[in-house]
């Protein structure tokens, strides 16, 4: 009949097999199959999404935290070193003197040195009493740590004998009386003397290498520190190295200065760079640890995928048998289930990456950091989720492809 | 010309001691263009014979040749390719995929042939028209009657232009009027496309219409029955 004539001529196409097209058709088929078991797929997808989100969020948070602390250092300058008495060694602790300041200044690679006497006293303003860190410093200290006055001025050589004080921004806020923080001209009582506030510093981020937080410290002239506290020895020397000088060399020459001579004095020299390296290492360990936790949740998600796929294989035995009868090779059946597992975990991965970035952004916003999406976490998250999908999808897929067509058709 | 030749085929189910001999020394030839009924009581081995003929299973011993090719020991991939291109199946329970439309179900064999999807759908559509379901292309199996479903299954079996169409009790789930239409369809396809048909049936009326009857008894081909009538 006519119809028969219509069908026959298409015959030569039977052998028009093309790899790419075949795989695309198989992938479309896989997606359709997944859609059919929507609810269960969604649950497995959720597991993968949570695992991926955990990995992406933790890596992003770790990276943002590291960037935040790096930025903190760089704000204050990574060229700062400190010298402090080493109390850990037996014997009399070293005495740091003004003579050391002058001698250290002459060392190669050293740009500026400022002595520092750390004291702790109670500050009183009217009814407010506040125990606070007080530092005896020389005028060059402020330039050295890049602290600027927001109101009034910092200390000068002329303040050497005066009872004046410069307040860190945070401390000034805490000393507020009736909502009014002290301003230049206010009087504060420290160690039995009235000190005139001459300046309030601009807010700053703490530099971990300094023995004090500039923001929450009161600064008095070093020569007047004796008025505030009986023990006003120099506790630290703050050093800024020249931009070209290597960290290692300056640290070495500072140590040599104290360990040389007839009376070696034990001191600890710390540099910002040293701390940065230590902190970066620590952050890396944290990031790895957190990522490992995320990885565990991802594996749990993978087990969920395997579960869904295994149930799918059992439930769809007849379908597998039918497809085999229609000409699906074992590898076609295997590819179908693998594609389904991959599609499942990859969509979970995409959802997880978005979720993880959102979580990291919320965390960063909450912590007051600048949020930058971690670039390597994207391919990592997608790669891990699809890897998990393939790994956990392989077993069910191989199971499916090993079914005997006859037994599968009977649903056994 | 012989399409399919079985020569001294044995087949048992189960393993070792508990194995049940299902086929014993079965030899037969299926010739091109004939319509052949396989009859016999339950458990006589009809379905097992059909699955061997359809290359869904392998004989334990004996030779199985399809279009002259020795397939008893062929690879799984080779058997899949032959099933895909040269053999069509119709089952008692239709075995349509419920989430696919009639058109998609019929086009399914082309998925494993690498035929472009558009072309596969075109051929599926014309085959559905040929079996009288031109107005049901986009219906899902659940929206169709049993007879319509089986016609979709028949369309799927022959859409790839096979040499051999195998049917395992194709009318077992249908009422007698619908059953007759399906059997009519088989004969029409046999006449139009030249496809060889082998079907398992319980229905003596259907068997009587077939040009040749193979009677299975206890795993053996009953040689006392009239062999080739055609």
From TrEMBL, chain A:
Residues 293-405 form the ABC3 transporter permease C-terminal domain. It is a multi-pass membrane protein. The keyword Magnesium does not apply. The keyword Transmembrane applies. Belongs to the ABC-4 integral membrane protein family. The chain crosses the membrane at residues 42-62, 288-314, 335-365, 377-395. Its main location: membrane. PANTHER family: ABC TRANSPORTER PERMEASE YTRF, MEMBRANE COMPONENT OF TRANSPORTER-RELATED. It holds the Pfam family FtsX. Keywords: Cell membrane, Membrane, Transmembrane, Transmembrane helix. InterPro entries: ABC3_permease_C (IPR003838), MacB_PCD (IPR025857), Macrolide_Exporter_MacB (IPR050250). It is found in: Cell membrane. This is ABC transporter permease. Residues 41-255 form the MacB-like periplasmic core domain.
């Amino acid at each position: 009949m006519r119809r028969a004539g219509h069908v026959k001529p298409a015959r030569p196409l039977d052998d028009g097999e093309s790899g790419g097209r075949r795989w695309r058709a198989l992938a479309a088929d896989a997606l359709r199959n997944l859609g059919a078991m929507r609810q269960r797929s969604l649950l497995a997808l959720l597991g993968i999404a949570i695992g991926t989100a955990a990995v992406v969020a933790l890596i992003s948070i770790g990276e943002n935290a590291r960037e935040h602390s790096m930025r903190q250092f760089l704000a204050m300058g990574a060229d700062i070193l400190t010298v402090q008495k080493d109390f850990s060694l037996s014997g009399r602790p070293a005495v740091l003197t003004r003579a050391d300041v002058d001698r250290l200044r002459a060392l190669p690679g050293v740009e500026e040195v400022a002595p520092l006497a750390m004291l702790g006293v109670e500050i009183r303003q009217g009814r407010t009493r506040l125990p606070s860190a007080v530092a005896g410093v020389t005028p060059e200290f402020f330039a050295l740590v890049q602290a600027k006055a927001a109101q009034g001025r910092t200390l000068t050589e002329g303040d050497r004998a005066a009872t004046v004080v410069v307040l860190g921004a945070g401390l000034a806020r805490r000393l507020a009386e009736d909502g009014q923080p002290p301003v230049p001209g206010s009087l504060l009582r420290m160690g039995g003397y009235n000190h005139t506030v001459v300046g309030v510093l601009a807010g700053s981020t703490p530099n971990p290498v300094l023995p004090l937080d500039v923001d929450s410290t009161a600064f008095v002239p070093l020569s007047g520190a004796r008025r505030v506290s009986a023990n006003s020895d120099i506790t630290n020397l703050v050093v800024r190295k020249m931009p070209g000088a290597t960290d290692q060399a300056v640290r070495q020459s500072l140590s040599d200065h104290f360990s040389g001579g007839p009376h070696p004095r034990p001191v600890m020299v710390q540099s910002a760079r040293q701390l940065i390296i230590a902190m970066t290492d620590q952050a890396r360990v944290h990031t790895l640890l957190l990522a490992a936790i995320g990885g565990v949740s991802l594996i749990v998600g993978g087990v969920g995928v395997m579960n869904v796929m295994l149930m799918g294989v059992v439930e769809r035995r007849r379908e597998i048998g039918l497809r085999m009868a229609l000409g699906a090779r074992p590898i076609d059946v295997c590819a179908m289930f693998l594609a389904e597992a991959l599609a499942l975990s990859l969509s979970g991965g995409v959802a997880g990456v978005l979720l993880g970035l959102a979580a990291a952004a919320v965390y960063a916003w909450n912590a007051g950091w600048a949020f930058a999406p971690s670039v390597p976490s994207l391919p990592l998250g997608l790669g891990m989720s699809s890897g998990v999908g393939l790994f956990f999808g392989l077993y069910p897929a191989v199971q499916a492809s090993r079914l005997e067509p006859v037994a599968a058709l009977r649903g056994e | 010309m012989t399409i399919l030749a079985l020569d001294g085929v044995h087949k048992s189910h189960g393993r070792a001691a508990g194995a049940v001999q299902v086929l014993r020394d079965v030899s037969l030839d299926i010739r091109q263009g004939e319509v052949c009924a396989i009859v016999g009581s339950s458990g006589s081995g009809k379905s097992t014979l059909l699955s061997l003929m359809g290359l869904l299973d392998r004989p334990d011993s004996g030779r199985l040749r399809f279009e002259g090719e020795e397939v008893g020991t062929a690879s799984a991939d080779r058997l899949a390719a032959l099933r895909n291109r040269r053999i069509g199946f119709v089952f008692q329970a239709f075995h349509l995929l419920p989430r696919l439309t009639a058109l998609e179900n019929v086009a399914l064999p082309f998925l494993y042939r690498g035929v472009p999807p558009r072309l596969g759908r075109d051929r599926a559509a014309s085959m559905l028209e040929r079996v009288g379901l031109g107005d049901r292309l986009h219906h899902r199996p659940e929206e169709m009657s049993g007879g319509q479903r089986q016609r979709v299954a028949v369309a799927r079996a022959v859409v790839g232009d096979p040499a051999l169409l195998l049917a395992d009790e194709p009318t077992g789930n249908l009422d007698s009027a619908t059953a007759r239409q399906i059997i009519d369809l088989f004969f029409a396809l046999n006449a139009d496309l030249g496809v060889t048909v082998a079907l398992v049936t319980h229905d003596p009326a259907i068997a009587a219409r077939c040009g040749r009857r193979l009677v299975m008894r206890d795993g053996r081909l009953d040689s006392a029955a009239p062999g080739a009538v055609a």
